[in-house]
Amino acid sequence: MSTSLRRRAAARPKAVEAASLGLLFAVTVGGVVLARAVTPEPPPVWPGVALAAVACAAQHWQRGRPLHVLAATALCTTAQGALGYFMTPLLMAPLLTAQYFTAVRTPRRTTWNSALAATTCVALTGVFLPSFLHSLIIAVVNPAAWILLFAAFGSYIRVRREYAVARAEHADRRREEEARHRVIQERMRIARELHDVVAHHMTLADAQAGAAKHLARTHPDKAFEIIDKLPDTTAAALRELKATVGLLRQDTDPADDLAPAPGLRQLPDLVDSCSAAGLEVTVTVEGRQHPLPPVLDLTAYRIVQEALTNVTKHAATRTAQVRLGYARHYLTLTITNDTATGHPVAAPGSHGGFGLLTMRERATSAGGTLHAGHRPQGGFQVACTLPLDRHIDSDTDSRVTSPDESPAT
């Protein structure tokens, strides 16, 4: 049926129902005429037509009372058999239609119980019909098979509809879960950015303020020099915080004022800010340095930033070494804090927090690995490997090793 015909049919349900019932009555009357033609002793025609009309008219209540309609059509068909009519599919059309809709609209147990009851009524009529005692297959098996066939077909349609509904509900739940997962991932990503920005700059500002307080009496010149650099640290924190929160703006907002995401190109500025807080950082580059994809560049920068923040907060010594190793397919980051003899270092995260957890999540999301822990010779080291080519073994992507560590801020 074309789309236009379906639209017209949906707009005129009563006309469609009347036409369907008229067509069903015409088919059933044809079955009455055919049954009289093949019966050795033709039964009266008008009782058969009247019973056909009653059976077809009962279809009007098919949607609300399928079992009642099936019972009425079964009685009409049984009465036609008792009058001597041959049970052909045309004559049984109202009964078969009622059986089909009963199977579609009722549970399986009800469907087959009703089908067996209707089959029994029609079969008993064939058994006691004198005209067809010589052929039980025609008189009993044939009508019973048609009833059971339509019951099976209706059950199949019902199962298909239930399966389609279940698939649609499953698809809806899956879409909702995927949307919820994307929201959670975006919230985690923004949380990581906010944590890195706030933790790093506030830690440097706290270190600078502490150093200025310590030197205020003995070396006031150095204290004022540190205080002069303190606004730069807080201003950098505000700039990065504004850029990160800008990710939450509406799609219609202009984005021209958003600065590009930080990367390893800002590493010298990061080293200078750490130096202002009293941390001496040495950067070593191995291999041929080349531009990185934006996401990987940001990940590498944030891992170095968080590692240096941990050194500033927790380490006993004020030195750190950063090594960048560029290979063909991988970028390795190693941030090391050496411990002077007799001066133990505090493990990053010994006071609780999310520093190491954040670094691990960043490395995993980029398809890399991260190891953080104490060195045998003393100190603490963060080693990270990030793939430059994401077409690598998924098992390698998801492997993260982190023994002997606790979360850090």
Number of domains: 2
Question: What share of residues are in beta strands?
Answer: 5-15%
Structural classification = alpha+beta
Spans of at least 5 consecutive residues whose pLDDT stays below 50 are 253-258, 340-352, 391-409
Question: What pattern of helices and strands is seen along the backbone?
Answer: HHHHHHHHHEHEEHEEH
Average pLDDT figure: 76
How many strands in all? 5
Number of helices: 12
Helix content range: 55-70%
Question: Between the first and last Cα atoms, what is the distance in angstroms?
Answer: 66 Å
Radius of gyration: 42 Å
Main sheet summary: 5 strands, mixed
Strand order, sheet with most strands: 1-2-3-5-4
Query: What is the global morphology?
Result: rod-shaped
Question: Could you write a compact summary of the structure shown?
Answer:
The protein is an alpha+beta fold.
Structure description:
- With 409 residues, this protein is of the alpha+beta class.
- The chain has two domains: 173 residues, no CATH class; 131 residues, 2-Layer Sandwich (Heat Shock Protein 90), CATH 3.30.565.10.
- Helix content is 61%, strand content 9%.
- It is built from twelve helices and five strands.
- The protein is rod-shaped.
- The protein starts with a helix and ends in a 12-residue tail after the last helix.
SSE diagram, text form:
Elements: H1 3-11, H2 13-38, H3 45-57, H4 66-82, H5 93-105, H6 108-127, H7 136-215, H8 220-245, H9 267-276, E1 280-286, H10 294-314, E2 319-326, E3 330-337, H11 355-365, E4 369-374, E5 380-387, H12 394-397
Parallel strand pairs: 1-2
Antiparallel strand pairs: 2-3, 3-5, 4-5
Helix pairs in contact: 2-3, 3-4, 4-5, 4-6, 5-6, 5-7, 6-7, 7-8, 7-10, 10-11
